[in-house]
Specification:
alpha+beta; aminopeptidase; Pept_M24; 6-stranded mixed sheet; 34% helix; Creatine Amidinohydrolase; Creatinase/aminopeptidase-like; Creatine Amidinohydrolase, Chain A, domain 1
Amino acid sequence: MLMQTHEARLSALREELKKRGLDGFVVPISDEHMSEYIGGYAQRLAWLTGFGGSAGTAVVLADKAAIFTDGRYTVQVRDQVDGKLFDYQSVPATSPAKWLGENAPEGAKIGYDAWLHSKGWAEQVAKALEKKHAALVPVEGNPIDAVWADRPEPSNAPALVHDDSRSGRSSADKRAEVADWLKAEGYDAAVVSALDSVAWLLNIRGQDVERTPVALSYVIAHADGTAELFIGEDKVTPELTQHLGNAVRIRPRAAFEAALGELKDKAVAVDPNYGVAAIFHALEGAGAKPVAVRDPTILPRAVKNPVEQQGQRDAQARDGAAIARYLHWLSVEGPKGGLDELSAAAKLREFRDASDILKDLSFDTISAAGPHAALPHYRVDEDSNIAIAPSSIYLCDSGGQYLDGTTDITRTVWIGPGEPSAEQKDRNTRVLKGHIALARAVFPQGTVGGQLDALARQFLWQAGVDYAHGTGHGVGSFLSVHEGPQRIAKITGAQAGSDQELLPGMILSNEPGYYKEGAYGIRIENLVLVEKREIDGAEGDYLGFETLTFAPLDKALVEVSLLTPEERAWWNDYHAKVREVLAPQLEGEVLAWLEEACRPL
């Protein structure tokens, strides 16, 4: 029997926990690879609670339950989750560990799925439970799966070969680099469990997770340059087998845990951020020596080779033309009224779909009108959808997954008629000035992302305002739109990655913003490529950014008097390049609109 209400689902889970002798259970948004986006089969928190955000955790005890989300989801969690069933808890003010330490019964057994949590998380929670003489217990089989009658099966779509002509390096070359690292560090093997790392290392892609072109799989890479790929047998095609060759042994995905047991006495590198607790448990149980160390594919994946860099430029040019068509359409249809957030997002998808090498969006489009634009991570659905009102601000953050690159762009526009308020123009111009300051930055080799963050915030700070998200994240090459280890953000414990040195070939977003709660929001986002800069007389090596994203910015929201001559020159140069890149792809009314949008200030 299918349980339609979340109350019935919660009750069924409690019954299952009782049968297993458990006093509680922790339900994260996660899969076995610690992925940002997860398949329908792993959406256990959404099934249990109704919460549709991308980050959150629930803890269920016999007599109470709580759901934990951060500031991005304060409004959404209250809209979607019944407060009579789950107490709302805000992270980082509290955490599942802290809450369990205060609320778990004396001597309780709290269950967790070791395939969905990191080892560090499990250790932290176990420590918090000690004061209640309670224990954190790994479960055999997830109890939610036992009561979720219509749980979707994991995708069985075939894995796809990502041709060397697009990847720029062969899998053999990448595996040899990993093997050299293993030998240099004194390890016998590395467990590669992040899906985008597997995809990059073997030059494969997949269709198993919406918005990220990856295949559900694991790799064990060995110090002799060979590897074992653990993947569903129905995903293996003759093309994949031929592509991988003799040095990559293909094994069933279900054999992965047992294969960890074959590494007895071996020193095995496991990334603590992507290697779940179950991997460490299996290795330790087999007498192997797991070492918590960063996945050796992450840094080489972040530094794009020349083929990937050119692919990104090509993808951005194609994407920019779709954005130009969309912005022109908005300029015509928006002032008439009649548009809403969902119809606008669908129209943008239509423009992108005109490309025959678009494979997916790179994330769910943030199509945000009026007060919704003040929610940086807003996601529109049938329930939240509102009209895009004439005489208002509209923010659209979107991207595409193309065979040659992954795009991510935000444009904030004024929907006419009339003029934006003086405050709206002031705030948008301060965001623009920060964007320009970061785009024009020149910095010595060895600079980390966190050292550049204040460049983008300084003009907002001067007005006593700020924004609560990072300024820039790494971006993959037809892979994850959020890719580490580089980022540009305030250097705090919560912003891991801000201390990564920026290296030539890395791609990041440049996306300062401003958000006035309940009123409007502004964000300007382009992608940039870290490149070497030649400076006469320079003492040492210096770097800067090549802007990759080309689409017009809205002049109506700019207070030109606040711009310096250098900032106006940047605007004019940028729009001259926009015209150069996009005009050959456009015609008729759209081309005329582009010419007007790109006229110098």
